[in-house]
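FORM 12-B: Structure-to-Sequence Request
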């Protein structure tokens, strides 16, 4: 009786743990030396501009940027005319006509970047049931942030010998469970950079991560500059208060 009870408890324990072992823990991402790290960090705008090109030519076919307007791109160093030209390449719904019909029109600078699919069901239908996440805040929404994204994009590989995953899934040790529906999006020379930078997988991953870090926190530089000013103000204030205290109490006998 006791042995049967112990065996039953063991089987239940193994069954409960099985999904965890089957899923596999994600490998810790590489820690990259990002230009935006640290209190004095800033965005590498040349890299972020190339990252926009990677997003437009590779990522936009599946992933949306719901919280980014074309005019925001001026913060990355694009001119007003360049922003208008980029926006005009996209179609967005226009105002209803006299008959209530809505026709598409070229986007303008004030428009948000259009999503690649009309709705979630359309996105799932075109991606084997998987729903591609919105990338606007992806570097803040995932543990590891930019390091995770870079490692994921560069981490596709053949599975270990004897390990077979679900159908239409791809092995990536940086993804929780190791099997991801998204196939490797980046390939050597998959795009041609307008500034002729060599388009290696690592370079494209670095650039698009820079860009998506900016979309997630476009006010990062202003925040850091404000923080530095506040710290300097507090240091000066502390020194002044120290000397004021010395002056006020200088004639008091202790």
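FORM 12-B RESPONSE
SEQUENCE OUT:
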């Amino acid at each position: 009786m006791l042995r049967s009870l112990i065996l039953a408890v063991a089987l239940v324990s193994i069954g409960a743990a099985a999904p965890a072992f089957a899923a596999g823990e994600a490998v810790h991402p590489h820690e990259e030396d990002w230009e935006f790290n640290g209190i004095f960090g800033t965005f590498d705008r040349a890299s972020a501009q190339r990252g926009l090109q990677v997003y437009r030519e590779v990522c936009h076919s599946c992933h949306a940027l719901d919280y980014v307007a074309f005019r925001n791109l001026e913060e990355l160093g694009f001119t007003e005319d360049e922003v208008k030209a980029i926006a005009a390449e996209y179609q967005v719904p226009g105002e209803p006509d006299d008959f209530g019909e809505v026709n598409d029109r070229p986007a303008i600078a004030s428009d948000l970047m259009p999503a690649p699919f009309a709705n979630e069901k359309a996105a799932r239908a075109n991606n084997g049931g998987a729903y591609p996440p919105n990338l606007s805040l992806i570097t803040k929404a995932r543990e590891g942030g930019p390091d995770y994204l870079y490692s994921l994009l560069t981490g596709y590989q053949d599975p270990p010998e004897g390990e077979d995953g679900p159908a239409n899934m791809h092995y990536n040790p940086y993804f929780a469970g190791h099997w991801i529906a998204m196939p490797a999006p980046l390939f050597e020379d998959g795009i041609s950079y307008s500034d002729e930078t060599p388009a290696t997988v690592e370079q494209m991953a670095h650039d698009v991560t820079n860009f998506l870090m900016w979309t997630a926190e476009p006010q990062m530089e202003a925040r850091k500059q404000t923080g530095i000013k506040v710290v300097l103000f507090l240091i000066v204030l502390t020194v002044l208060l120290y000397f004021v205290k010395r002056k006020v109490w200088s004639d008091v006998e202790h």
